[in-house]
Amino acid sequence: MTATTNVADAERLARVALNVAFEPADLELAQQVSAHGAVAVCRRLIDTGKLGSRSAEAVARLDAVDPADELERAHRSDLRFVVPGDAEWPSQLDDLEHAADVTEGRGGVPLGLWVRGPVRLDSLADSVAVVGSRSATDYGTTIAREISAQLAAERWAVVSGAAYGIDQAAHRGALAGGGVTVAVLACGADRFYPAAHERLIGHLAEHAAVISEAPPGAAPMRLRFLARNRIIAALSRGTVIVEAAPRSGALNTASWTDAISRPVMGVPGPVTAMTSAGVHVLLRRGATVVTNAGEVLESVGASGEHLAIDLRGPERPRDRLSMTQQQVLEAVPLFRPSGLESIARIAGLGTAETERHLADLTRNGFAERSSTGWRLSAYARS
Predict the structure, then answer these.
(1) Which of 13, 21, 75, 349 has the smallest set of CB atoms within 10 Å of its CB?
(2) CA-based nearest residue to 172, from 185, 158, 186, 187
(3) What is the mean pLDDT of the segment spanning 326-331?
(4) GO:BP terms for this protein (predicted)?
């Protein structure tokens, strides 16, 4: 590991070295770095040959890393390494330091994030994660696109993982809505995974941001996907799950979201669809039901800032009547007129009160009076 005389540079280089030598989301390592700093952790590893459960093998990997060279090669690939303390560092990630242990032995605040693209990480304070099944249905991808497009239109960034299914639909929806969307990958930020999404990821790298905790060149692995999920959760104000089977990786993202006390939201699907079975489990356990971006923003926005409007059928003229007036109107026959006493008896009211309301209903066009009594008007029947 190359030495340096500048403290800030030394900390960055030490974090690069540890990032390359160890797997992402090494909880023990993250806790040591958080407590003592990366420079001290590297020095202790090299001087003593161990750090907690870390062995001589780990020291050998660390000693083989040239962090200055890693940064130079990353720079040539248009990557930057953002670390805690940088102006660009997204402070919301710091909540991971106190998160419950979701994946055994994995977690903690990242040592740093490799970023490719012009969007700064500190601009993602107002962002929502939209994730879900890779094997999504047309229903799921349509909902993910619509929610993401509406969020983008409200100037909220959309965070997802660039995977097949819901992830790609979320990215494309946000782009269609003219907003910002960033992808967090389980491989190096200089790679395209899945390969079929090279154009999408390339577009995000050119116009938004592609983010990874894994060092440049790193291959996608299962543990790295689980580590990636906590970054998606922690970057965002809340997480929306659109379709997830009972063992979907999206449920791991939901668990990380809950662990840092952020809103977990789920879009319900058909009860017969396995693609939504995992979402329904979340909903039974207390996740918030959402069906559109307005409901999402109600959950993640400041109190009273985004109040979703409950859907109602079209207002009918009789909706403006008082309950007693509606009670009398219900007693008025459709076609054959009835007398006052008959209407009062059916309405369960006295004749004087009924007559007063019938006069109001007639005056307002809801009832018609003839020589034999009252009946509903065409206006009331509409």
Answers:
(1) 75
(2) 158
(3) 95
(4) DNA-mediated transformation
State yes or no: pLDDT of 373 exceeds 60: yes
Q: Which of 193, 159, 164 has its CA nearest to residue 179? A: 159
Mark whether 138 and 251 lie in a shared domain: yes
Question: What's the alpha-carbon Rg for the chain, to the nearest Å?
Answer: 30
A 10 A CB-CB count for 105 gives: 10
CA–CA separation, 220 and 278 (whole Å): 24
Asked, for residue 310, whether it belongs to a domain, the answer is no
Peptide bond into 263 cis (omega under 30): no
Contact 67, 20 (CB under 8 A): yes
Of 31, 46, 72, the one marking the end of a domain is 72
Length of the chain: 382
Alpha-carbon distance 128 to 262, whole Å?
Answer: 11
Instruction: Summarize the confidence of residues 184-201 as an average pLDDT.
Output: 96
Q: Which two tokens stand for residue 226?
A: 């689980």
User: Considering 275, 300, 325, which residue would you say is the last residue of a domain?
Assistant: 300
Distances (CA, A) of 104 to 173, 174, 188, 249: 34, 34, 23, 15
Transcribe 229-269 into DSSP letters. Answer: HHHHHHHSS-EEEES--TT-HHHHHHHHHHHTT--EEEE--
Residues 93 and 200 in one domain: yes
Q: Cβ atoms within 10 A of the Cβ of 19, count?
A: 27
